[in-house]
Amino acid sequence: MRATLMYGPGDVRVEDVPDSTIKRPTDELVRVTAACICGSDLHPYHSMNPADGPARMGHELIGVVEETGPEVITLKKGDLVVAPFAVSDNVCEFCRENLHTSCIHPEAGFWDGGVPDEGGQAEAIRVPLADGTLVKLPVAEDSELMPSLLTLADVFGTGYHAAKMGGVAPGSRVTVIGDGAVGLMAVLSAKRLGAEQIILMGRHADRTGLGREFGATDVVAERGEEGIAKVRDLTGGHGSHVVLEAVGQLPAYQQAYGVVRPGGVISRVGVPQYEQAPIGFGSLFRHNIRLAGGPAPVRAYIDELMPDILDGTIEPGRVFDTATDLDGVPAGYRDMDGRKSLKVLVRP
Amino acid sequence: MRATLMYGPGDVRVEDVPDSTIKRPTDELVRVTAACICGSDLHPYHSMNPADGPARMGHELIGVVEETGPEVITLKKGDLVVAPFAVSDNVCEFCRENLHTSCIHPEAGFWDGGVPDEGGQAEAIRVPLADGTLVKLPVAEDSELMPSLLTLADVFGTGYHAAKMGGVAPGSRVTVIGDGAVGLMAVLSAKRLGAEQIILMGRHADRTGLGREFGATDVVAERGEEGIAKVRDLTGGHGSHVVLEAVGQLPAYQQAYGVVRPGGVISRVGVPQYEQAPIGFGSLFRHNIRLAGGPAPVRAYIDELMPDILDGTIEPGRVFDTATDLDGVPAGYRDMDGRKSLKVLVRP
């Protein structure tokens, strides 16, 4: 079968690999019908150590069950399923608290690194803990809802997690930092949760335009001190109750504590590309700023978010502005890295 | 009148200073009947730049109103009042949200630095924004409840803030880091809010003994990796839902993210003596650890906490193990710094 491999910075290849097969009784083998390239895939695309490669890529996918291990009980051959970006058993104490990304099952973890011989940007994939990980989709493989349903695997759930951990509620004033797919999903999520003001900080007009359609009430293209001043102007001088940080770079975090209101919360879902950052008296402590967020337990949100997609209330799949087959995946990385594409849909 | 001045590290003196007087129509002049030395007073005692001094000291006090400015409406001469460690108008948008430490009135702020010519470790004090700042006490000046009521000025409200911002609720499993007065108040507060398990990390047996009486179910004297391992043992391996950090030094924060449970919260009330600290994937992000806390709006908690003191349900004043007059204040600093005293009550 064919699959995507990353060899080092800027070096993505689609190659023949051994066919994925069932290895454990709780596995399922899934033929991938739709996958995508994630903004977080660009982090190794920039900085991967070639000695750690080649690495199988892709952690967002929809597919058809081809074969089930003997202990799988909730899914059968032919089911169309969506796989979140983390494998989880859905029954441990953390999963029961809706924190599937901290599942304690020995096979649980992120696709990237955690399941080294598998990836979503491929023709097929072995899914561990299938009963816990996968969710059945009540549509056909050729449904036109596919792009929106695919966002349930990561970006929509991640944006929604940001908003939930930020405590967005009716009347909230929110600033979203980042106009990538997750930032736009954070806008859509804040809107869905009733935010009154949603300021989107981003400088790509096509993306912020979509952000406005998703619910952003204001757009601030400036960054740094200038951007902070603009947000403060838009919020009566004190900043936003809730800041959703969907970038992961240190300047985005610095921008976040620049625009957050005293007593407010910064909710991060952009994977931090830093470890040390300011949290002392001068940044968070003085005004009781809270910090929240982490890898989204998207499995926990699928049941809640899917109905709005199925009935057409929301259309998160609009973040996909490009589609390709597997051969086009290396170009897809290049285009996302070069901001020519917002998010690339892959149909293997 | 006589007042306490800090000239530099280890250099505290009690001297004659100009009498405090009313300067603005919203001021009150208060004769101090009880004050104290705070653990946070030890930070400048260690590291103050003599060029910034001499500085008036003391931000916790009870006293009798001697004179009221013409615009003060809620308090009158002869009232016994408690002054929180922050001046606030109690009516701005932040005070109405119970975040008095972020009051936006131009005269609002901390005693230390914010009201440079006044301090609680003195015979008298000018209190700005008296209607907003002060709370009347329904007891006589010689009440035996005085030590406990004095904790409402800072340490009890600060420990309670830690617990509230940590979301302590019935059934919570809590770790408190620090066996100083605030740490012990955090124990008492967690108990009051219904915590099921309260692990106190501290190595002074007399203090942790009092902590047990306040509600600690377990005491861990070890620090660092060894202490973290002990807490994990006591919590089924995963750590505590809530960690209350009442120290302010970086190792205490590192200990905090070592003992917090995935999805849990670290609530800081020890004034951070650092600005940069780990908050990336390896510390907070990976398991959705939240960070909360800041300077406690103790004004917001006085009405809630005072009844339990008045009816004897709780006795937070037990943290005072030493009492002195003004002359004994320099020795009080020395004894607190040397851990001979837990907390010093000053009767000017």
Q: Topology of this protein?
A:
The structure is a homodimer of 348-residue chains.
Chain A lengths: L1 E7 L2 E6 L11 E9 L5 H6 L7 E2 L4 E8 L11 E4 L2 E2 L5 H4 L12 E2 H4 L9 E4 L2 H4 L1 E2 L9 H5 L4 H11 L7 E5 L3 H12 L4 E5 L3 H10 L3 E3 L3 H11 L5 E6 L4 H10 E9 L7 E3 L2 H5 L4 E4 L8 H9 L11 E3 L4 H9 L6 E3 L2
Parallel strand pairs in A: 11-12, 11-14, 12-13, 14-15, 15-17, 18-19
Antiparallel strand pairs in A: 1-2, 1-4, 3-5, 3-9, 3-19, 5-6, 6-10, 7-8
What does this structure look like?
- The structure is a homodimer of 348-residue chains.
- By secondary structure, chain A is of the alpha/beta class.
- Chain A folds into 2 domains: 2-154 and 298-346, Alpha-Beta Complex (Quinone Oxidoreductase, Chain A, domain 1), CATH 3.90.180; 158-293, Rossmann fold.
- The first copy, chain A, is 29% helix and 25% strand.
- Chain A contains 13 helices and 19 strands.
- The first copy, chain A, has helices at residues 42-47, 93-96, 111-114, 130-133, 146-150, 155-165, 181-192, 205-214, 224-234, 250-259, 281-285, 302-310, 329-337, and strands at residues 2-8, 11-16, 28-36, 55-56, 61-68, 80-83, 86-87, 109-110, 124-127, 135-136, 173-177, 197-201, 218-220, 240-245, 260-268, 276-278, 290-293, 322-324, 344-346.
- In chain A, the strands form 4 sheets. In chain A, strands 3, 5, 6, 9, 10, 18 and 19 form a 7-stranded mixed sheet that branches. A 6-stranded parallel sheet of chain A has the order 13-12-11-14-15-17, sandwiched between helices. A 3-stranded antiparallel sheet of chain A has the order 2-1-4.
- In chain A, strand 11, helix 7 (181-192) and strand 12 form a beta-alpha-beta unit.
- Chain A is globular, with a radius of gyration of 20 Å.
- The mean pLDDT of chain A is 97.
- Chains A and B meet through strand 15, strand 16, helix 11 and strand 17 of A and strand 15, strand 16 and strand 17 of B.
- Strand 16 of chain A pairs antiparallel with strand 16 (276-278) of chain B.
- Chains A, B: Its cofactor is Zn(2+).
